Amino acid sequence: MSKDVIVREITIRASADTVFDALARPEERVAWWGRESRFRATRMESDLRPGGRWTMCFETPRGPASVNGEYRAVERPRLLEFTWRPSWFDSAESLVRIELEESDGVTHVRLTHAGLVGEADRANSSGWLDLLAAVQAYVERAVADGSTTT
Amino acid sequence: MGYQVGNLMVTMHQARREAVFRCIADPTRRRILQLLRRGESSVGDLAGNFRMTRPAISKHLRVLESAGLVVARQEGTSRLLTLDARPLRVVHDWVQDYEAYWGETLKDLKRYVETQR
Fold this sequence. Notes:
An eight-stranded antiparallel beta sheet of chain A has the order 1-8-7-6-5-4-3-2. By secondary structure, chain A is of the alpha+beta class. The two termini of chain A are 25 Å apart. Chain A is built from three helices and eight strands; from the N terminus they run βααβββββββα. Chain B has six helices and three strands; from the N terminus they run αααβααββα. Chain B is elongated and about 70 Å long. Chain B is mainly alpha-helical. Chain B has a three-stranded antiparallel beta sheet with strand order 1-3-2. Chain B has one domain (2-84): Winged helix-like DNA-binding domain superfamily/Winged helix DNA-binding domain (Arc Repressor Mutant, subunit A, Orthogonal Bundle). Helices cover 65% and strands 12% of the residues of chain B. At the A-B interface, β1, α1, α2, β2 and β8 of A face α1, α2, α3 and α6 of B.
């Protein structure tokens, strides 16, 4: 498993349609995306179709921030995939994929955030992943040694 | 944004972090870093692995040096280069912060859908 892919899963007691709408409809999205005083989604613009653009704006104690991207897949209620480009980090564009699977009235949500660092050059990403593995090894060793010498 | 991601934005040395990411976004620079994992190398030996000119390689090396990823020392007439992987820690931390961020975001989604909606 490569280190620049994140997978997170959760089970929600609701239909996949309900969960999909909470994710995809701007007025619902801004109602829940935020963490109290730290940041809060204030506005979302969304052209919900493959190739359509989206922007989500935030208030933070440090001022406004935003994330934008482009929808890659919109298949209500099973799949939502979009690129992710944060305003606070100019060199990154990555890909978020959210898969919903409903059974017996609950929906299993699987979120994958991929290409966190290799997006700029996918052709060479195997080389990058190798390097990231080295970083991992380095960090773990440094922690084990209690030192930071290489 | 994001508790964790927001903290990154606030607490990290932004310029230095950007410099590290800019280094690794480039395939030639990633290749240089990988070659240096084998150990110290002269600029000439390093350049032998690439089809580009030596001045072009030197330019990449300056970028890597300014981010602290490559350390150079002079021995006689040759410049010897070594890898310092420590600045790459920001990349590792950044990925980990996103893990926490998405975990929290999914919990928020669950809470909203199950209770507030």
